[in-house]
Amino acid sequence: MRVTRSIIPNLFTLANLFCGFGSILASSQGEFERAAMLILLSGVFDALDGVIARLVRSTSEFGVELDSLCDAVSFGVAPSVMLWNVFFYQWLNWGLLLASLPALMGVLRLARFNVQLTSMEDKAYFRGMPIPAAAFTIVSYVLFTHLSGDVAPEWQPALITAMVVMVSLAMVSTIKYDNMPRPTKRGIRERPVVFVVFLAGLLAALLTEGKAIFPFMVLYMVGGAVRHAIYLIRTGGKDEADDTLEEPDPDPFSM
Fold first, then answer.
1. Which of 106, 161, 229, 250 is most deeply packed, by most CB within 10 A?
2. CB 216 within 8 A of CB 84
3. How many CB atoms lie within 10 A of CB 33?
4. Which of these, 109, 54, 45, 44, lies nearest to 76 by C-alpha position?
5. Do residues 230 and 111 touch, judged by C-beta distance below 8 A?
């Protein structure tokens, strides 16, 4: 095998997969806090691989495909396994279906992204909630709300089910969600408000030891949907011009 400079970002991508695999094992052993931390660490590696690929100028279709395969495990399968072991095992077949939704919808989301990708450059938006954001929403709810005892036992089934369904549908929707802005002068100058919001969310998560992650992710998910709805109302139902990472057509599914 010929070693090229693309091996550097690919190693970070594989580290993402390694953490996802570790999270699955941790969830299977009932170590949910460790499983959640490994998924968050997968997100760190997922963000770094793209940055490093651009720094060493080694972006490629191979890297995109590898990244999607690893994301499917770390942000799709791993959260689904966590959901099954935390709660949905009690509902047997129905629980299996509900727990699998993040993995199923996440894989559809990644497949749509890959077939519609036309450029390696960063753009302002994603079409549909990104699968890492969906995974962070799920694991932060499980860790800081479901397992913390803040929710009364009689409300837990309804809340965790609603959360899983909403996050899964958000991934395969055509709602435009903000891409995480790059911490560069150009990125800050072009989208200062988005940068400040993401920075505030990061600081809040650090100061609250992770407890602010779930409220921030809910704000991200709902805020994108509300903004999209307002735009459609103002334009009479006409979708906005595409400036996402993906072309609007062909679309294997539309919601």
1. 106
2. no
3. 13
4. 109
5. no
Which amino acid is residue 48, in one-letter code?
Answer: L
Residue 182's contacts (CB-CB under 8 Å, 6 or more residues apart) are: 51, 122
Q: Which helix (H) or strand (E) holds 112?
A: helix 92-116
What does the pLDDT look like over 176-193, one tens digit per residue? 898 877 766 776 777 788
CA distance 78 to 202: 23
Instruction: Give the number of residues written for the chain.
Output: 255
Name the residue with higher pLDDT: 3 or 101.
101
Residues β-bridged to residue 125: 178, 244
C-alpha dist (Å) from residue 164 to 38, 207, 224 = 20, 26, 17
Chain position carrying tokens 């400079």: 5
Q: Is 35 exposed, middle or buried (0-12, 13-18, 19+ CB in 10 A)?
A: buried
Residue spans of beta strands (DSSP E) within 160-223: 176-178
The answer to whether residue 112 scores a pLDDT higher than 60 is yes
4, pLDDT greater than 80: no
CA distances to 13, 35, 82, 107, 134 from 150, in Å: 35, 20, 19, 31, 21
Is the whole-model pTM more than 0.85? yes
| Residue in 142, 128, 34 with CA at minimum distance from that of residue 80 | 142
- 154: exposed, middle or buried (Cβ count in 10 Å: 0-12, 13-18, 19+): exposed
Domains and their CATH numbers in the chain: 7-234 (1.20.120.1760)
